[in-house]
Amino acid sequence: MSKKPISTTDAPAAIGPYSQGVIAEGRKIIFVSGQVPLDPQTGETTGATVAEQTHRSLKNVKAVLAAAGAGLDAVVKTTVFLQNMSDFAGMNEVYQEYFDGVFPARAAIEAAALPKGVLVEIEAIAIVD
């Protein structure tokens, strides 16, 4: 099995030693690194509320998947990191707009701090045919 990085300008560039996503060739699995609500053109945080930031984070996940030839319908697992678990309902309301049919398995975790002081970060694992 070999790994191939995914890189797109339609999602924010990596701000550390990680790829936007990775395709595990031979397995047809896409691993999308945690996406925070940064605008890919400006590098600035988008939105002040968890709902606004969840929209941007999921748009960034969608962009990385698109660069790998997949869509949100291919996602089988997500992990959502929240700065405050009291924001779960606001995140969840937006999150459900992005997925239909069989929802991905998911974990939601409160994190003491997230990159750039954002309220939410979302990572995903997807499969492609």
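[next item in queue]
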Amino acid sequence: MTRYGMAIDLTRCFGCQTCASACKVANNLPAKLVFNTVYTVGGASTDTATGTFPNCTMSYRPVQCQHCDNAKCVEVCPTGATTKDDDGIVSVDSELCIGCGSCIKACPYNVRTLIDAEPEYYLDVVVGESDAPSHKTGTVEKCTFCKNLIGRDEVPACMQLCPARARFWGDLDDPESMVSKAIEGRDHEFFMEEEGTEPKVYYLV
């Protein structure tokens, strides 16, 4: 059985935000909705370092839904709208979601958004993939691992255009997959591992 996951090489990521932009366009996300955020690990604002010159440090951490094996959002959803699929992807069924926000409170990663008003867009035309998810008022949305793309043997939009080739995708249980080979022999960490969610996004360090 397939168990999809992703590895992100933090030694390669240089904070260009291409992954976030590609995600937003491919999924035709409304103006205030993001699935993928690249945080600066350093100063208090984006692209600022911490420390005193010349001993300054700065790095980046892209964060999206971690598609956890022990997903707390699944446990608290009162309608069964949030589920972990057979392939390990955590999904939200917009037809079942009532926008109660329970999953938002349960998720430690701050990667879910309630669409509480009619979505507004930067453009007057629909962009992105023809089968991009619709965005419905009163529902919660998050990264889907581009389930529509992988369904036709493509990779998630966030890794398609990454100029640093910092992202790796595939079946975590297949030793020959791209993601398994990327993880093999590399030190890695999980974001907020102490939460016990067993995330499937590996950060290579």
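[queue empty]
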